[in-house]
Amino acid sequence: MHNPFTLSFGKKPVQYISRIAQTNQIIDNFNAESSPNQIYMLTGVRGSGKTVMMSNIADAMREEGNWIVIELNPMRDLLQSLAAKLYSIPEMHARFLKARLDFSAFGLGMSIENAAPVTDIENVIERMLEQVKQSGKRLLITVDEVTNSEYIRIFASSFQIFLRRGFPIYLLMTGLYENIYDLQNEDSLTFLYRAPKLTLEPLNYTAVRKNYMDIFQLDLDTAEKMAVLIKGYPFAFQVLGYLYWENREKDLNEILPEYDQYLDEYVYGKIWSELSEWDKKILAEISVSGECKVKCLRERLGMKSELFSVYRERLKRKGVADTREYGKIRLALPRFDEFVKMQIISVDL
Q: What kind and span of H or E run contains 148?
């Protein structure tokens, strides 16, 4: 049997732990007769499983007969891509021809005799969505890793128009918190503030432990040690599982250096490079001193309460700080304290 774990981002691994509650929340909302929300945004730290969760939802919708699911590339013209992908679906293509819709101005099919060509891309998609609605289907669009780019802004503005027209169109986007925040702050896209944003929480501890026990036929004690080592972080779940599969003859502690290296090179280095100097100072103080009480940390760093609160919230939203316990702040990512200590040493050198 091949290694069931993967180190590749975005790829749906053989072994993974689904977020049942959050996944069902979105699916149930989209499937409702009168959907309360037609947009959802998934956010979380790098490696938190946003893409995998989006793929799971898309797969579930594809299995239902009344859904069309289309994935769009955020680096391309999304409206053009949407029109082209809708046109390429055989069932919809047949309906467009039967309705004598001429989309040849955009390279979609041939011109139709005695039919006026549609020359505006928004109008093209509206005509297509009318056919989707008449067919009794719903359209789900997924966009992974959105940023505040021109293509995304134009698409989001058009999507708002499609919603107002009452079309059965739904949108599922993923992105880092700061990218979604920037997008929402665009003056023309304030409607996105009303769209539910789901921040992916750590994986269920019991589910992680059971998964490791079943795959490796482990005793409870070893499985618990592995579950504690990943702290509910999906990418760490994959990395530790991958390394343990390849090194089952070794003690768990023997693979920790390689575990740390993978986390550093694949994720932590990038996360660290995107932090501000004060972000790094706070994390360094937590890592070195082991202090987690907010009041004591502020005193050590000489920060006023108002300023510390700003950075505390930033670190929480970036997914590197756990602030669930009142008056305390801890590191959310597994062995991130060891990584931070190494950054401090390298700077001192």
A: none
**Residue 245 identity:** W
275-348 has which fold? Arc Repressor Mutant, subunit A (1.10.10)
Integer Cα distance of 338 and 234 in angstroms: 19
Q: Which residues pair with 241 in a beta bridge?
A: none
Q: Express each pLDDT in 129-163 by its tens digit.
A: 999 999 999 999 999 999 999 999 999 999 999 99
Per-residue buried b or exposed e for 96-106, using 16+ beta carbons within 10 Å of the residue's own CB: beeeebbbeeb
CATH topology assigned to domain 20-199: Rossmann fold (3.40.50)
Radius of gyration of the chain (CA): 24
The DSSP code for 204 is P
User: Per-residue pLDDT averaged across 210-237, rounded?
Assistant: 96
Report whether 297 contacts 329 (CB < 8 A).
Answer: yes
H/E run at residue 139:
strand 138-143
Pair 268, 239: CB distance under 8 Å: no
Q: How far apart are CA 336 and CA 212, in angstroms?
A: 22
For the chain, give every residue range classified as CATH 1.10.10.10.
Answer: 275-348
Burial of 214-224, coded b for 16+ CB within 10 Å and e otherwise, reads ebeebeeebbb
Give the three-class secondary structure for 247. Answer: coil
Write out pLDDT tens, residues 31-69: 998 888 999 999 999 999 999 999 999 999 999 889 999
Cα–Cα dist 88/265, whole Å = 40
Token pair of 31 as six digits: 């499937």
CA distance 186 to 183: 6
CB-side neighbour CA atoms (13 Å) of 221: 1
For residue 308, is pLDDT > 60?
yes
DSSP 163: H
Chain-centre distance of CA 50, in angstroms? 3
Return all residues near 2 (Cβ < 8 A) that are at least 6 apart. Answer: none
Confidence band, pLDDT 50/70/90 cuts, at residue 111: low
Q: Where in the chain is the domain with CATH 3.40.50.300?
A: 20-199
